[in-house]
Amino acid sequence: MHRTFLFLLVFIAAAAHAQQTDAKLQAAIATLVKGFNGNIGVYVHDLKHDKIAAINADTVFPTASIVKMPILLGIMNRIQKRELQYHQRLTYTDSLFYNEGDDILASFKDSATIELSKVIMLMLTTSDNTASLWLQGLAGGGTQINSILDSLGFTNTRVNSRTPGRETNRSLYGWGQTTPKEIAQMMERIVMGHLLGAPDGQMLRLLGRQYWDEEALSQIPPGVFTADKNGAVDASRDEIVYVNSAVNPYIFSIFTKNNKDTSWQYNNEAWVLTRKLSALLWKYYNPKSNWQAPPVSKEE
Fold this sequence. Notes:
Elements: H1 2-16, E1 20-21, H2 23-33, E2 39-46, E3 51-55, E4 61-62, H3 68-80, E5 89-91, E6 113-115, H4 116-125, H5 129-138, H6 141-151, E7 158-159, H7 167-173, E8 176-178, H8 180-192, H9 200-207, E9 226-233, E10 236-243, E11 250-257, H10 269-285
Parallel strand pairs: 1-3
Antiparallel strand pairs: 2-3, 2-11, 4-8, 5-6, 7-8, 9-10, 10-11
């Protein structure tokens, strides 16, 4: 009986703090995403009123480059433990080369040195894959990062690439996987200082320096602080954003997979939808704002 009573207390407490769904916003988002040619998941959390809107928010999606948030977690965990130093110098070697592409770090010469802090910046700001894979290794690899994620309650967010035992997941989701809700909760815990604690402020600053700003961020006034990470592969486009609006701060994520439109142009269907969602949310939470955003799509 004692255990049953304790269980009931926990259940009642959880129910009392259950987040309410914003029915009006939920309906607006459902209308917005209707007809999308692919699978889509959305999670929105109104931080002022503690209300949510969600569509397939617990469905697992490929992270693409959003996997770099768990890698950041792994690196900051080692820095917090003093196993690494934020400004320590690292030596780049040709063995770290990933691909030509647009990676800045991949253009480094063998034996060149760079601060760890700058490698982190490259991973998050320009989404440099060479930097990211280097940091994944420095964090202890995917297995260690996944262990940290599990200890923090993130059961669906995982690093798959170069992680023993995750080969099947990698074939399904690529480098990493998560759900719209879990990655939004990770961002929220960083914002609130409830992820690693002391390092969270630095993590938030790092996520606030985003080069790729033509999707969700394009629909938010540039004077508003945002923290963001996005990701893209051919058939999947994703973004997670914290918007520190003075009127009504909020967090939202949008994930897609199995997209019919695999193009890399401005008018890619998933990117247009991402801009539309961001514009909808900004106007919804800031109804008196008269800021004019750039178009969500362009004429061909």
